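Work Package 3 (structural annotation) set out to generate three-dimensional models for the target panel prioritized at the project kickoff. During this period the team completed the workflow that converts sequence records into C-alpha cells, so that structures can be stored uniformly alongside our sequence database. As a representative example, we reproduce one entry of 474 residues exactly as it appears in the project archive.
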Amino acid sequence: MEGKFVQSCACCGLALMMSLPSLLIAGTQSGCGKTTVTLGIMAALRQRGLSVQPFKCGPDFIDPSLHLLVTGRVSRNLDIRMCGPDWVRQCFSRHADNQSISVIEGAMGLFDGGSGSAAELAALLKVPVLLVLDVRSMAESAAAVLRGFETLDPRLRIAGVIFNQVGSARHLQLVSEAVRRQCRAEIIGWLPRESGISLPSRHLGLHMGAEVELNRQRLVSLIEEHVDLDRLLALAGEAQIPAAPPAAPLEPVGKVRLGVAWDEAFCFYYQDNLDLLQAAGAEIVRFSPLHDKALPENVDGLYFGGGYPELHAAQLAANHTLREQVLAFSRAGRPVYAECGGFMYLCEAIADSEGGRHEMAGVFPVTARMGQRLRRLGYRTAELREDCLLGPAGGVLHGHEFHYSDIDPMPDAVRRIYTLDDGRAEGYLLNRTLAGYVHLHWGGSQEAARGVVKGMGAGAIREPPLLPPQSSSL
C-alpha cells in the first residue's frame, strides 16, 4: 500500500511529503547492542500483530537475514554510497507503507561511514533516530555522549535513546537523571546486562538468520518490560518522508532462466539485484552447490553470490558431479557470473589457514587461500575496460569488498574486465565466465541487470572454449 501524501507543492500540486511511520535505530559505536535492540523491537512489534518492514543502512548482508527471521519480510539495503540518494529514496518509498512501521537498522556508529553513514541516511529520509547507548562503563557521562550526538548535525532529530547494559537500579537512576537534565532525547527504555541474548559472530560478522537460534521470546520479554513501545510507535508515526523522485521503469530485454546458487555456502545476494534481474526478464531458478547433484535444467546462465564456501569447503569438494557440471558449463562458453565466495568456488581449490586443501570447480587456474586477517574491506567503484556481461566499456559500477581470502597470482592470459578505484585490475574473464571479489549493487547502475539478461540470452559461444592456462598455484 502506498504512503499517504500529506503536503503538496502549491505551484504544481505534486506531493512533497508522505506520512510513513518510520524510525532509524542507530548506535554510538559498533558493538553497542544496536542489532540486538533492533531485532528485539522488530520481534516485539510483530508479536503485537503489527507489520514491520525492515531496512539496513549500508552494504551488509547478514543483518538483513536476521531481520527476515524476526519480521517475515525481506529487508532492503539503503546505501547512499553504492546506489545514490535517488535510488535510496525510491527503494524506501517502494517498500515502506503507512499500514506498517518501517524500522531501519544503522551501521557502525551513527556518524561512521562518511556519505554512507546512518546519519546521512536519516537526514536524507528525514526519519527520527533512536540511539542505542551502551552505558556499561559510565554513569553521568552518558549525558555528555548523548548531548554530543544530538548537537553534531542539526539536520538530525535524535528523538529517543535506549540505554543498554544497565547494571542496577542505581546505575539506571544516575544515567537517567543526567540525561533528563542535559539532553533533548526522550528515554524510551533500557536493557539490563544479560549475556543470554547476545548474537554469535565469526570472521565476516554475525551468523546468518537461518543459522541463529535466537532466544526470541526472552528478547521480546525484555523489550516489553523495559522499552516503551507505545511511545516508540508515536515517535515513528511523526515521520514525514520526502516524496521520492519518479523512477523510470526497467523494461524487459528478453526471457532467460538464470540458475542462482543458494544455500548455506552461497547466501550473500542483494534482493534488489534479483528484483532488477527479474524486471529485465530473468526467471530465477535456485540450486544448491552443497546438496544438488545436477544443475537446473535448461538454464541460460549461472550466478554465484558470496557467502561462506570456506566453512563448507569439504562438502562442496565432495559434490564432484555438480563441480564437473559447472566446469563444463563454463567451458562450453555459457555465461557465468560470480562474486567473492562464488568466485572462490570457481577457483581450483580453497586452501584453509591450517594447511587443508579442498578442490573446487576449477574454472580459474588459481587457489583461493584463507587467511587469519582481513585482506580487503571497503567500498569500490569499477570502471569497465571493455564490453562485457555487465555493460559496455566505460560504464561504472558500484560495490563493496570484504574478505579474508586471497588468490594466487592470476595468469596474464585471463582477461581483466574492470579497473577498481584503487588501481587494481579485476573482473576476471575466461570464456564467458566473469568473476571477482567485489559485491556489486546495481541500484545505481540498473543497466547492469539488463546487460546480464541480454548476455545470458545470447547462448553459448560457437568457437572452441579457451582452456585455462597452467595453474600457478603450489
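The chain has two domains: 4-242, 256-456.
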